[in-house]
């Protein structure tokens, strides 16, 4: 069953190897874990629902405390602390489970009639507070889209598949693979996040180098709004005025509820493999990656860990003897302390993969890269969606883990990366606490790349103090990002947590444009209020 | 000097070979050309300017009749007929030539103070009426951006170049090539159209398969609006809410005047070549092209002429002996009557081009394609921007030429193509006139492609009747396109000519979104009124 207060299925756990624990203890010390409250305790604290009962929408709505608890929070560290401590704050007053667009229309009419807040809920995997209800006088109805999870049309010639917006990653891929197709969209949240959520929050997957971000995959669909149904027809491309898909992408529930998503799919590839290079230092590694992407080498994924992340990953991997051998080999080849690990994916036809691997070897050898084959790449592929489970293991050892991500142009990558890492590393110094910080670049573009930084710190004696430490790290770093040429989010959206930082990025007139759209479609701000725009 | 009433430089003319003339005469007959009026006659007909003279903007503005004539019309067939007949209708009351953003701000204040209409003018190459003033009580000021034509910044690491919005294609490329870079954006209007115009109208270039449409190339920039300056910062990608670049792309002057454009550039490629295949029939040719693009074969351009276009191009090429030999060779290899010509471009590294050509040969041979080398491809590349000059030659022989274009999903390509061709072919039957119609597919996507249809008909005895025939062909076919799953424009924008057809494509709520944006930024509809949205 799905964990009510953490990530994923509770039958699945990941353990941190002893060496990994020792590594962290050495860096930031140890701490007793904070105690988790039980689901039943939290359910007992849920106040009565404020939803009007006499409605034709009532049969769609579950007002049980457990449903309301399970839909109150996402997966940010703040959400974790809230769920673990039981100090959750606001619960939705009910959870609706529409089966089709007509049900969604019914819910919108219901919301309008009673001035309800309406929060669309996909996989509940937001790490930016998208689905958290805010305290307000009007009741909150969360709309869980999970029953709309079918492949309803497959156009083989045009390679367009139509899905219910609540279809989660595994059901997207399994329904397509049965016909020989793939979407190829693999965010780390793949196991739970949904195709509608990907569109609403402008998601990006690990193989976006080949398949594109959700912006490139989203071909059209349907959105139910308070003004009626908004159908976006599919065109391969158009110059007929602004692209309305781009108004929906990243709209985060403020314009309406996405019910149907049409996506551009691909035939399953002839070949796929993942490989690893090591570089002696960051400068050479980063330059090699930039050259690869600016050269348009046909890779499907590329990820570059900095020295700290490389060291951490090797330490946390377990298998100290094997890792020791690898490190000796690398050291002999010039990649010793400070080495950086680059993982890349080859996906496509035989000719494409062959040409790409030649180019990778050529460019990487110019920057002293050492090729180590596919063994570590295979490991990466096996564990690509399991990292969130490690958070669970670390939590039980008294460690809090969070990540921050942005994207910026190449000429600003080093500057911004260093600012972020330094701010996180020094952020708890006044508490005499250390933070363990490491970074990778994951999504690559000719113009720049994403920066994805992980930070680990010991939990404090209380939930309140742990939350306060997190908030200080998160907010000062977010401010630093937008003040220094980074986007507030490359792949996780805005939600409520990033909304205060959006105006710096979008500017006064940009915010005017977004606000005017929201006001046009939702003049009373019933739809996911305080999300995206405060 | 630039032709005042047609395309391009008046030192440059193209002749139609005798065989070409005979071919057209055989298909649709001959007709005496209509007489052209002179520039001076038209200048004499220009009414006095209604612009207020006492303004700090006055030194920027040219109210001479010739400037006003030269900025009154674009390059649609209706514009040609207007300029050739002298029946131009509305002239701008003056033409401003700002040198920088401050000048543009000054013009906006001037417009606001006196309720002037403001029309941004790039290369004046619109074929959809973007820059034509409409009859109204308030005076019209056209803003010619051509003095803002410099490369002002080149960021080599991030591969971003900053240009003044009025920079035309050749100045974009020459300024970049001096540093070893290219933008790679080659619309047929390349010689005259500007980088700001490309953004405003969502342009697409012939090598978009490699370099992307202007949507992919436009990284950010500045727009001067009536609400202030709107700066769009550059990010490689972002999930922070709606992508505001996409609000500006295709805005056609309705939100403000684009003054500065930042674009994603590439290193000049190692290799580039253009090649030609012939296929026995349309079905096999079209399928091969679809397979190529769905296979993600790294081509830089791809164009497929249908049987009628292939025949017309070979007939109009001249060199009957050489063409005869080619046709005999092709016929022996199975590509006889009804054959279709496919041109493709290879651009990139040695490894990329090698892999791509292998895939092209493999896929094309599955569909009975006959490879003919690079000779015809080279010819295509030499003449890629000169086709508009042929229109001039045909006009002088009594023929009117126009094109219509759209894009649609693969499963609708044949259906829509046939509807368009049939409607154009039969459109003048009630006048006992024939139309010569042919088509190519030019821009290819996994999901579908563009359809570009050319039609040639004899001019009538009068300008009025010729215009009326054109209007009937254009409007009935445009209606057909939007009612049958095509976009009203894949690469030419909406302007005033396509505006009546936009609501079918965008839907009621899509139009609401666009209108609300226009009203937010320009509540009094001063900026390019009747364009994009009627």
TrEMBL record, chains A, B:
A Pfam family it matches: FAD-oxidase_C
Keyword terms of this UniProt record: FAD, Flavoprotein
FAD-binding PCMH-type domain span: 88-268
Residues of the site described as Important for enzyme activity: 303
GO biological process: lipid biosynthetic process
Keyword Flavoprotein: yes
Cofactor(s) of this protein: FAD
Positions contributing to FAD binding: 120-126, 252-258
Residues binding substrate, per UniProt: 391
Gene Ontology MF terms: alkylglycerone-phosphate synthase activity; FAD binding
InterPro entries: Alkyl-DHAP_Synthase, FAD-bd_oxidored_4_C, FAD-bd_PCMH, FAD-bd_PCMH-like_sf, FAD-bd_PCMH_sub1, FAD-bd_PCMH_sub2, FAD-linked_Oxase-like_C, Oxid_FAD_bind_N
Active site: 452 (proton donor/acceptor)
Family: Belongs to the FAD-binding oxidoreductase/transferase type 4 family.
Entry protein name: FAD-binding oxidoreductase
């Amino acid at each position: 069953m799905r964990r009510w207060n953490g990530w994923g299925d509770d039958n699945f756990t990941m353990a941190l190897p002893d060496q990994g624990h020792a590594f962290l203890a050495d860096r930031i010390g140890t701490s007793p874990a904070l105690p988790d409250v039980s689901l039943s305790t939290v359910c007992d604290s849920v106040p009565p629902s404020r939803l009007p009962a006499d409605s034709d929408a009532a049969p769609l709505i579950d007002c049980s405390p457990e449903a309301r608890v399970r839909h109150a929070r996402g997966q940010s560290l703040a959400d974790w602390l809230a769920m673990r401590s039981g100090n959750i704050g606001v619960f939705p007053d009910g959870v609706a489970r529409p089966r089709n667009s007509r049900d969604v229309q019914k819910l919108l009419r219901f919301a309008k009639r009673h001035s309800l807040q309406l929060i669309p809920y996909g996989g509940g995997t937001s790490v930016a507070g998208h689905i958290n209800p805010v305290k307000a006088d009007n009741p909150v109805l969360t709309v869980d889209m999970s029953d709309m999870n079918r492949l309803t049309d497959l156009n083989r010639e045009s390679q367009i598949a139509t899905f219910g917006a609540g279809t989660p990653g595994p059901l997207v891929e399994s329904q397509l693979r049965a016909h020989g197709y793939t979407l190829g969209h693999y965010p780390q949240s793949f196991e739970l996040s949904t195709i509608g959520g990907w569109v609403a929050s402008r998601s990006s997957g690990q193989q976006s180098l080949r398949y594109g971000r959700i912006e490139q995959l989203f071909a059209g669909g349907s959105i139910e709004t308070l003004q009626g149904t908004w159908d976006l027809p599919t065109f391969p491309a158009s110059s007929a005025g602004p692209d309305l898909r781009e108004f929906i992408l990243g709209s985060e529930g403020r314009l309406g509820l996405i019910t149907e998503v049409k996506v551009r799919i691909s035939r399953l590839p002839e070949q796929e493999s993942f490989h690893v290079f090591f570089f002696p230092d960051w400068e050479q590694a980063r330059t090699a990656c930039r050259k690869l992407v600016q050269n348009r080498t046909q890779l499907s994924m590329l990820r570059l860990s900095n020295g700290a992340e490389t060291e951490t990953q090797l330490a946390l991997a377990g298998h100290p003897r094997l890792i020791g051998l690898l490190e000796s080999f690398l050291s002999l080849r010039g990649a010793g302390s400070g080495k950086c690990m680059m993982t890349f994916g080859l996906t496509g036809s035989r000719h494409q993969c062959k040409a790409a691997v030649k180019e990778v070897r050529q460019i990487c050898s110019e920057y002293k890269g050492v090729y180590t084959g596919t063994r570590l790449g295979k490991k990466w592929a096996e564990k690509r969606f399991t990292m969130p489970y490690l958070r669970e293991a670390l939590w039980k050892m008294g460690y809090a883990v969070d990540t921050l991500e942005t994207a910026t142009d190449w000429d600003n990558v080093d500057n911004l990366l260093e600012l972020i890492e330094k701010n996180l590393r020094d952020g708890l110094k006044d508490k005499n606490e250390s933070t363990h910080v490491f970074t990778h670049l994951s999504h690559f573009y000719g113009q720049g790349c994403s920066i994805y930084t992980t930070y680990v710190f010991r939990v404090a004696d209380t939930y309140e103090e742990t939350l306060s430490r997190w908030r200080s790290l998160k907010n000062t770093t977010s401010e630093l990002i937008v003040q220094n040429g980074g986007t507030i989010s490359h792949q996780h959206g805005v939600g409520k947590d990033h909304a205060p930082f959006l105006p710096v990025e979008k500017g006064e007139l940009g915010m005017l444009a977004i606000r005017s759209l929201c006001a046009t479609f939702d003049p009373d701000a019933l739809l996911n209020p305080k999300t995206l725009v405060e």
